[in-house]
Write a structure and sequence with these properties.
Helices cover 53% and strands 9% of the residues. The protein has 371 residues and is of the alpha/beta class. It has a 7-stranded mixed sheet, sandwiched between helices. Strand 4, helix 13 and strand 5 form a beta-alpha-beta unit. Helix 2 packs antiparallel against helix 3.
């Protein structure tokens, strides 16, 4: 560990803990689950739109478009199949699946330092989760949703259902690891992207339900960055004293921001997008290791975390969790010790494959495959 002089200096700093929700805290993909529940073939429909989202955000880098906008693209279709604010809230509250240890970890970490959740998920899901785990709603940034604010007639519902059938009939968009532009996709996939562009930005935009897309602002991509900067201002802290936990394409901007600012950017069971921008990769079926990393970070900052990871003594990871929390943390069943590595050019491809595979074992193949 760092020497005593550095330890005393670092303890004067105000550390901040920020985590995404779905992935590091819960195993859900709430929007995917809502779609699967109410829209026919909703799982495949959502998966295709998620790939479209990946293309626009990561491949084409379309101006003013951000990762996570899938959550507004599905809204006209949820509306057409009868979803309401109350149904979304009730369904979300009944189907929360926490990562083992997440409740204990958040309760522990928020005693160590100011702690926040920044999530692309809908507010109705996030607030239900916060009520369940006892996390303050005022420390949450998420996507505000009001699907009841407009009404659509039968003709529009039928038109949206026809468009849903057309989208569902498309084969899945394939994105190669080397794809850097739209021209790197197959000609068939390029045609799908153009057709989806027309559906969403010309046809639906002229419908009443297009107002839902226009008015909904998913907290993903650069909106997560804005949330982080708001937190820094609120806590009078610094990005270099920030630990950020993410796992998907919606966390890319945040992980990059925190890493480049000298903070601790951590991928927790992340996909290739998260691994690409994080500095530390964690593969674990529970959150015990996050408790320990947060404890080390609060005491010694990012340098202390990097040293802790290099030491690799994860058989004693409870050593940095205070005694009041050791018992509940130890009661969590775990199949094996966590895999924790500092990401570098030599291991990034391997970690991307291993982490992507592991996330599917924790969250399921369908959800784990989403961007």
């Amino acid at each position: 560990m760092p020497n005593e002089t550095k330890k005393i200096h670092n303890r004067k700093s105000k550390r901040v803990f920020i985590s995404d929700c779905e992935g590091p805290i819960s195993r859900n993909d709430n929007a995917f689950e809502l779609s699967s529940e109410v829209i026919p073939e909703g799982d495949r429909f959502f998966g295709l739109l998620s790939k479209y989202d990946d293309v626009l955000a990561d491949i084409m880098k379309r101006p003013a478009y951000k990762a996570g906008n899938t959550l507004k693209l599905i809204l006209p279709f949820l509306k057409a199949y009868g979803a309401t604010n109350n149904w979304i809230k009730e369904y979300s509250a009944k189907h929360i699946l926490l990562v083992p240890g997440a409740k204990e970890t958040l309760q522990y970490v928020k005693r160590l330092m100011p702690s926040f959740i920044v999530s692309t998920s809908y507010d109705k899901y996030i607030h239900s989760l916060c009520d369940l785990i006892g996390f303050p709603n005022e420390n949450v940034f998420c996507t505000e949703l009001d699907i009841d604010k407009i009404s659509i007639d039968i003709a529009e519902k039928l038109k949206l259902r026809e468009l849903k059938k057309e989208i569902s009939s498309m084969s899945m968009i394939e994105i190669s690891e080397k794809a850097k532009s739209i021209e790197d996709l197959s000609l068939q996939d390029q045609k799908k992207v153009k057709r989806l562009d027309k559906i969403f930005w010309k046809e639906i935009s002229q419908m009443k339900s297009g107002k839902i897309i226009e008015d909904t602002n998913p907290i993903g991509g650069y909106e997560k960055e804005k949330a982080i900067n708001t937190i820094i201002e609120r806590t009078q802290s610094d990005l270099s004293d920030t630990m950020y936990i993410g796992d998907s394409i919606t966390d890319v901007s945040s992980l990059k921001l925190v890493k480049e600012s000298g903070g601790a950017a951590i991928s927790f069971n992340g996909n290739k997008y998260a691994i690409r921008e994080a500095e530390i990769a964690v593969l674990s079926d529970n959150t015990i290791i996050i408790s320990s990393l947060a404890s080390v970070f609060q005491r010694y900052g990012k340098d202390g975390v990097l040293e802790f990871v290099r030491e690799g003594n994860y058989d004693t990871i409870e050593r940095d969790v205070d005694s009041a929390k050791r018992k509940p943390q130890k009661e969590i069943s775990t199949s094996e010790l966590p895999q924790v590595e500092i990401i570098n050019e030599a291991n990034i491809d391997r970690l991307s494959r291993e982490s992507n595979y592991f996330r599917k074992t924790v969250r399921g193949v369908l959800i784990g495959s989403l961007g």
